[in-house]
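Please fill in the sequence for the structure shown.

STRUCTURE ENCODING:
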């Protein structure tokens, strides 16, 4: 198995010659220029020569480093030099948003090629997708669940696929995806190129990947630590103070746009409502929303109609928005790997970003697991940026105490006042049936 070491792409003149050094057809070079690509990024330099030679690829790189072009360019080069009905390539994505973004980038790169694409994902009517499949698109970009449904109905024929891509492979190999994935693999030709790209690849997942790949070219440009462009810190606080701490952070002039991560979809909805009520242009992105609602939320965030996007980890896999200044972990992620994925939403494409994780005394074990994974302690800071020692936390400096009643007994938890549970305060942030919006107390969101 050939491996390219961390941050050491193969020595060649490729970087100085740009994308022309890979022998891409002129139409594809024009597409790259039109999409704003100038010089290959490290993951592209390290993978493209082997991928263009139709080697199987295992590419490990953090989000925002250019993985999409690393697998898209070999696919488009193949399509440019071949004829006949498709599909010639199948790209599998774990979320609808990620599928949409990858397909959009494919279309930008293929602007001067005759290359048709078809998106396949759930949450919307399948009629338009079935019509698109009848036209034999060159590339299918799909989420596994809907693709398997259409395969069962006889609408998908994968016998001509020559290239399979599993993007975000660690998530794709999650146990929930494996049955659908196996069914898809059984319908593909045995002779094909396989490319797996991911930000993380735990050992047990690497074993599954190795069963699929044939003598792959392995590129490991990712460490489990966040990328250098992201400054990440822990902000100790108490659970009842999280919302006010978040609002203090969002009012900072340096915070121009933020993605706030919540552990559950219901908590994300309540938090977005609370922020909107308090004057922030905030919107939620969570699993209970329809596809149309999710599209409106993402489009509004991209167009700056919303400054704050409150999301869950599942939605995080599909978020690709330029120039996000801050990521805020309102809740510490339950797995160390999710920490890297969340932080990858800022500091993308060489831009700088900041990530702040709110931690309470209940999060100590999760924080230790994250620090073990990334191999370094995470600095502690107050919300206004003052450093704290590792043992100095908000809950140690200011122990939480219940107010006493007149009789001297501890008062029961008053969930109707500021300082009650965060979940309860979110529930009070708007009338029942209200929806998250970016309005500022009656004002319309900026367009």
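FILLED IN BY: designer on duty
SEQUENCE:
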């Amino acid at each position: 198995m050939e491996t390219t070491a961390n941050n050491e792409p193969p020595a060649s003149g490729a970087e100085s010659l740009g994308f022309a050094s890979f022998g891409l057809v002129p139409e594809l070079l024009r597409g790259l220029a039109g999409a704003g690509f100038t010089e290959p990024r490290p993951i592209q330099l390290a993978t493209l020569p082997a991928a263009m030679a139709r080697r199987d690829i295992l590419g490990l790189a953090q989000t925002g480093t250019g993985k999409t072009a690393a697998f898209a360019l070999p696919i488009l080069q193949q399509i440019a030099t071949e004829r006949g009905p498709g599909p010639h390539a199948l790209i599998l994505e774990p979320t609808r948003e990620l599928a949409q973004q990858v397909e959009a980038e494919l279309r930008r790169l293929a602007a001067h090629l005759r290359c048709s694409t078809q998106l396949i994902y759930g949450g919307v009517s399948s009629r338009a997708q079935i019509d698109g499949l009848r036209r034999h698109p060159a590339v299918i970009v799909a989420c596994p669940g809907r693709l398997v449904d259409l395969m069962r109905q006889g609408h998908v024929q994968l016998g001509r696929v020559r290239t399979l891509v599993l993007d975000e492979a660690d998530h794709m190999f999650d146990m929930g995806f494996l049955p659908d994935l196996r069914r898809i693999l059984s319908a593909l030709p045995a002779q094909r190129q396989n490319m797996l790209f991911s930000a993380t690849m735990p050992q047990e997942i690497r074993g599954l990947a190795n069963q699929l790949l044939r003598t792959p070219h392995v590129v490991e440009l990712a460490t489990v630590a966040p990328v250098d462009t992201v400054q990440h810190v822990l902000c100790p606080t108490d659970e009842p103070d999280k919302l006010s701490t978040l609002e203090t952070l969002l009012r900072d002039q340096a915070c121009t746009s933020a993605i706030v991560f919540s552990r559950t979809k219901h908590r994300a909805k309540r938090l977005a409502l609370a922020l909107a009520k308090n004057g922030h242009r905030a919107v939620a992105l969570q699993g209970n929303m329809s596809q149309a609602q999710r599209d409106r939320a993402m489009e509004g965030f991209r167009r700056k109609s919303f400054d704050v996007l409150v999301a869950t980890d599942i939605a995080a896999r599909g978020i690709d928005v330029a120039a996000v200044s801050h990521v805020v972990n309102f809740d510490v992620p339950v797995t160390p790997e999710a920490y890297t994925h969340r932080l990858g939403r800022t500091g993308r494409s060489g831009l700088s970003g900041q990530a702040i994780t709110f931690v309470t005394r209940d999060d100590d074990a999760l924080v230790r697991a994250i620090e073990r994974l990334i191999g370094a302690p995470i600095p502690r800071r107050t919300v206004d940026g003052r450093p704290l020692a590792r043992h100095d936390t908000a809950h140690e400096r200011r122990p939480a105490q219940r107010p006493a009643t007149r009789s001297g007994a501890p008062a029961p938890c008053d969930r109707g006042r500021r300082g009650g549970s965060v979940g309860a305060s979110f529930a009070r942030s708007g009338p029942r049936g209200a929806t998250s919006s970016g309005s500022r107390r009656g004002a319309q969101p900026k367009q």
